[in-house]
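Q: Given only this backbone (252 positions), what sequence would you predict?
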């Protein structure tokens, strides 16, 4: 059973290995690339006043990798233990794991791994600033929820999601047919459609009529609104949950 992985190639190996272990054949077809913002003056200014924020909310591994560099760690290290006011929230276990690699332990990880679910853990944010290092095209639900609760969301773009370039081998693999296409974000849905059409393929009428597996409800909504129909969605919004959904589908 062939499973197409659309996430960036640099982030796909772990998922691919889990698929192999479970008996599936992973097929790489990255549709997005992640580009960190260089010489990020807005981020530097925010970090220079880091203790003015009540929270820093990281919503993805990409946000962590694009924010935490030597300057961030230097700023973090300037505050003695117990004097750092700002707290750290991480959406999802992978985001938390990425922070721990830098010896930063999140203060809060929501039970549901979607942006809006984090509000319960932020507590009373009235009159308080919340730093949101995010993608250039990030969804607005979280900052809007913070504003609605009386907080002050400060969005800083730290990375951009760009369309990937399709390699010939990847295109041949897709044309030969796959059983499942995985989507891990709304961006992967959008760019998958654009790239397949660019390659003269109909994304809604692919060889072997694959099932489209979405990592969570936000991605599922994007897929349904785009026009996909044969959709399954992970109950746990991680690649492990995605693998479980695919495995369960195979046993039906």
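A: Predicted residues:
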């Amino acid at each position: 059973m062939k499973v197409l992985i659309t996430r960036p190639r640099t982030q796909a190996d772990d998922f691919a290995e889990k698929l192999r272990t479970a008996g599936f054949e992973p097929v790489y077809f990255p549709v997005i690339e992640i580009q960190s913002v260089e010489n990020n003056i807005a981020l530097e200014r925010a970090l220079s006043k880091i203790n003015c924020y009540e929270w820093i909310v990281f919503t993805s591994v990409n946000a962590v990798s694009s924010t935490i560099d030597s300057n961030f760690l230097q700023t973090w290290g300037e505050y003695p233990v117990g004097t750092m006011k700002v707290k750290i929230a991480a959406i999802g276990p992978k985001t938390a794991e990425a922070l721990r690699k830098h010896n930063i332990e999140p203060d809060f990880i929501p039970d549901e791994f979607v942006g809006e679910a984090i509000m319960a853990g932020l507590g009373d944010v009235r009159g308080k600033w919340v730093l949101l290092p995010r993608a250039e095209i990030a969804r607005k639900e979280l900052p809007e929820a913070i504003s609605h609760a009386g907080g002050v969301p400060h969005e800083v773009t730290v990375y951009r999601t760009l369309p990937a370039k399709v390699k010939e081998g990847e295109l041949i693999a897709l044309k030969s047919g796959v059983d499942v296409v995985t989507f891990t974000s709304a961006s992967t849905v959008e760019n998958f459609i654009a790239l397949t059409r660019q390659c003269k393929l109909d994304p809604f009428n692919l060889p072997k009529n694959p099932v489209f597996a979405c990592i969570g409800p936000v991605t599922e909504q994007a897929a349904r609104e785009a026009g996909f129909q044969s959709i399954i969605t992970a109950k746990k919004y991680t690649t492990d949950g995605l693998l479980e959904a695919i495995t369960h589908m195979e046993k039906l």
